[in-house]
Amino acid sequence: MTTPTQTERQSQPQTHRGSSSSASDRAFPDGLPYRLRLLLVAAACLGAGCLAFSIDLPVASWFKRRPSPVPGELMRLLNFSEAFAHGLGVAALFAILLTVDRSLALPWPGRDAARRNQFLRLVAATAAGGLTVDVIKLLVERVRPRAADLGSVTSVFATFGLSALAGPDPSPSDIMSFPSGHAAVAAGFAAALGWKYRHAAAAFATLAGLAALQRVATSAHYPSDVAFGAAMGLLGAALSLGHDAVPPLARAADSMADSPRA
Asked: For residues 48 and 179, what is the distance between their CA atoms, to the nearest angstrom?
């Protein structure tokens, strides 16, 4: 029986180190880092938001004129997807994740630091865009479609400010249409979960899209609101998740799976 030469033994660790990098590359076959993907999609959403100003009024008017603009079962699906974009719904989903995924841990003393950090990054990526949108809402007034007299509005930019209000006593929420906080949270949450569970990224993106559509269908927002909100959510997630293409624990698992067995 022959034994490995010294050169062969020295080359084995190098092969193992390379496997971690290749695992990360396979996670994203086109070679684009996840953070760059988020930034590119965010830029696309910003562009879509600018273009959506041209359709805001006809789309909002169409949904507002119809008592049931969306078929019943589809509307139930849209309303269900709101849990993916609402603070309480997202908190409940995070609680489920902590229960079923042992690679995550609450930031309590004595818990594994890597697992705590992963959980905190997921939360930060989800919340960053939503908090940014909340600040913008305080600075920019826009009347929601449900509270606007869309029949008398001649320009989409007239929905900014108070002139488009249909009634004299609006609630604070009625003038906080721009941008959509739900869309921001949904986009950030989808980006965070796609970073952690990359095999299901498309499913998370679909849920975020449904949540955004629900905001338009219920006359809570204009199309441009949800586009700009989604952009803010993705930008916040990109900044919070950092440069890692995949979570460190996921890379370690891929590396172990690729390492040669005795």
From this structure: 13
pLDDT of residue 68: 75
Cα separation, 26 vs 173, in Å, equals 45
Q: Which of 177, 185, 190, 261 is nearest to 224 (CA)?
A: 177
pTM here? 0.82
Task: Give the number of domains in the chain.
Answer: 1
What are the tens digits of pLDDT across the range 123-178?
Answer: 999 999 999 999 999 999 999 999 999 999 999 999 999 999 998 888 999 999 99
Asked if residue 260 belongs to a domain, the reply is no
Residue 221: which of 76, 74, 55, 42 has the closest Cα? 55
Could you count the other beta carbons within 10 Å of the beta carbon of residue 134? Answer: 12
3-state SS class at 142: strand
Q: Are 186 and 208 in contact (CB under 8 A)?
A: yes
State residue 255's pLDDT score.
Answer: 44
How far apart (Å, rounded) are the C-alpha atoms in residues 124 and 181? Answer: 15
For residue 134, give Cα distances in angstroms to 74, 129, 194.
29, 9, 24
CA atoms within 13 A on the CB side of 230: 31
In a domain, 130, yes or no: yes
Q: Report the C-alpha gap between 124 and 126 in whole angstroms.
A: 5
Domain harbouring 113, CATH code: 1.20.144
- Please indicate, yes or no, if residue 80 is contained in any of the structural domains: no
Integer Rg of the chain from CA: 23
User: Which residues does the chain have with pLDDT short of 50?
Assistant: 1-2, 7-27, 29, 252-262
In a domain, 3, yes or no: no
